Amino acid sequence: MEARDTIGAFGRGGADNPPPSLEAPSPRYGEKLIKGILAFCAILSVITTTAIVVSLLMPTIDFLGEVPIGDFLFGTEWAPTFSPASFGVLPILVGTISTSIWGMLFAIPIGLCSAIWLSEYASPGARKTVKPVLEVLAGIPTVAIGIFGLVFLSPLIEDVFPFMVNVPPFSAGVAGLAIGLMLVPIIASISDDAMRAVPGGLREAAYGLGATRMKVATRVVFPAAISGIIASLVLAGSRAVGETMVVLLVAGASPNLTFDPGSSVLTMTAFIAQTATGDISTGSITYDTIFAVGTLLFVLTLIMNVFAIRLVRKYREVYE
Amino acid sequence: MSEKLEERAPEENADHAGLSQKIAVRETTPSDVDPWAGDRVFELNNVSVSYGSSLAVNDVSMQIQKNEVTALIGPSGCGKSTLLRCLNRMNDLIPAARVNGEVLYHGQDLYGSKVDPVQVRKLIGMVFQKPNPFPKSIFDNVAFGPRILGLGNVEDRVEKALRGAALWDEVKDRLDDNAYGMSGGQQQRLCIARTMAVDPEVILMDEPCSALDPISTAKIEDLMNELKEQFSIVIVTHNMQQAARVSDKTAFLIVEMDAAEGNRWGQLVEYDETDRIFTNPQDGRTEDYVTGKVG
């Protein structure tokens, strides 16, 4: 205590001072309010998701009351608005998978190669130019990409590969290509961030062993960043499956059960958009069909995400 | 070896007239064994390193003997790590870094136009300040070098390297476990084993024990004594006792300052046999540092 007195004016050790209070000087209502607002915002998205699932489920149950689930999931003819109606979802499910696969086949190699170049090879100046351009590309409205596909890509492909696209300008392949263009910046940008987050010490270790830049990139940085890279692929895959505008404009609208990139296809999203913009009465079978397809789309992306999380857990390299 | 490489005293660098300190030259006292007689791995002639426009190390001339431990000591910022990184062209990875002067490796210019830095680093390995195992299994860490370089007998090499790093008995039953499950000292010995597995001639160690506890440090110091039979080792350390314990030759660097310009750079003060540096230094600044009066 005596030692504290030597502090002088700041000391609390004087004999006259009452013991200092340990209670909060104010009830801090503001902080409680802010905490409430923050929690509300976080919970809001959970509520929204739940509400969407519930609103999807009710009409879906009505739909399944009229159409047996086997006919829906395994039927090969999709003609819900025709008479007699047919509700086999396979053609539009395959349409979605087909355009997504073509898109991903185009986007994954280009996106990952861009990411490796950006993170391991590009000079700081080149990176500063290229990365913002990529990010701008990611922000282009999909309707613009759809139009680009329609007026530029289709004729181009028709000229270059006349044998491949037999029903131009609407085909799964061109739609896939346009989707792919849209996915490249997502994969490149997120994978680049993931690779750049790998500690420099790991790169130095590999260089110190006589590794070339390529070996450092592919054997050390890429595996160490795999969880972020898979996350970018999952995000891109979800975008591809959920993409509506591009496929509506470019893929055609014929529910053909085929993976042929030259064939016109109808995807689940395009069906929903097309049908929902027409005149349909609430509670009709067509109305319920939209929700049934929406539910299937939701389940599809959910499966993809669960699968991706498992994949990440299996291959993740944890440093520190 | 050319005649001029035999000279141990560098000339004053005209570009930095007045900045350059005369390096205390060891007097040629006759002894039974000339400690400088053995083969040389490196010859540094007037080596300066700068990052962009700022000088980091100025005008270092020294030679590094084969199968010895050479220590670089000095206060923080004296450029000892920068100097070490010149020796296997690790500074190439920093775009703005520039090396002037001559670094000879067995008489060949390390910065010659035909020299491939990847090839250089195969022969001159490096162990870093912070243990940096790859986020892979213990086996895969050591096997990494042999695999990327396409060397045969990976399993034998891994075992030999782990034995050489005095780690085999501790890890032989868990070679498939992740390296990050090991203690810091084990991780650092793993990094040494990883470097040994590609069979380099020189191992550069950049403060290899600064993140380790005293027991792990002692293990690595013991290891260095064994390793110098197979490798030439250059170690940067800020621990003077460590330099005194493990090294044969010691170079002492200081931070020079230009008060008017506000620049700081590293300068070699004295380079000699470790015993002489610690017991009979020729330069007063070395004496002040090793006796703890400054720094």
Can you tell me about this structure?
The complex is a heterodimer of chains A (320) and B (295). In chain A, strands 1-2 form a two-stranded antiparallel sheet. In chain A, helix 4 runs parallel beside helix 7, helix 6 (142-160) packs across helix 7 and helix 12 (268-276) runs antiparallel to helix 13. In chain A, strand 1 and strand 2 (86-87) form a beta hairpin. In chain A, 36% of the residues are buried. With 320 residues, chain A is mainly alpha-helical. Chain A has 13 helices and two strands. Chain B is an alpha/beta fold. Chain B has one domain (39-290): Rossmann fold (3-Layer(aba) Sandwich), CATH 3.40.50.300. Chain B has ten helices and ten strands. Chain B has helices spanning 80-86, 117-123, 138-148, 154-164, 168-171, 184-196, 214-227, 240-246, 274-279, 284-290, and strands spanning 40-51, 54-65, 69-73, 97-105, 108-109, 124-127, 202-206, 232-236, 249-258, 263-273. Chain B has a ten-stranded mixed beta sheet, sandwiched between helices. In chain B, a hairpin with a 2-residue loop joins strand 4 (97-105) and strand 5. The longest helix of chain B has 14 residues, at 214-227. Chain B is globular. The model of chain B is unreliable at 1-26 (pLDDT under 50). The A-B interface holds A 123-124, 199, 201-212, 215, 219-220, 223-224, 317-320 and B 88, 90, 93, 95, 118-119, 121-123, 125-128, 130, 132-136, 144-145, 148-149, 178, 180, 191, 194-195, 198.
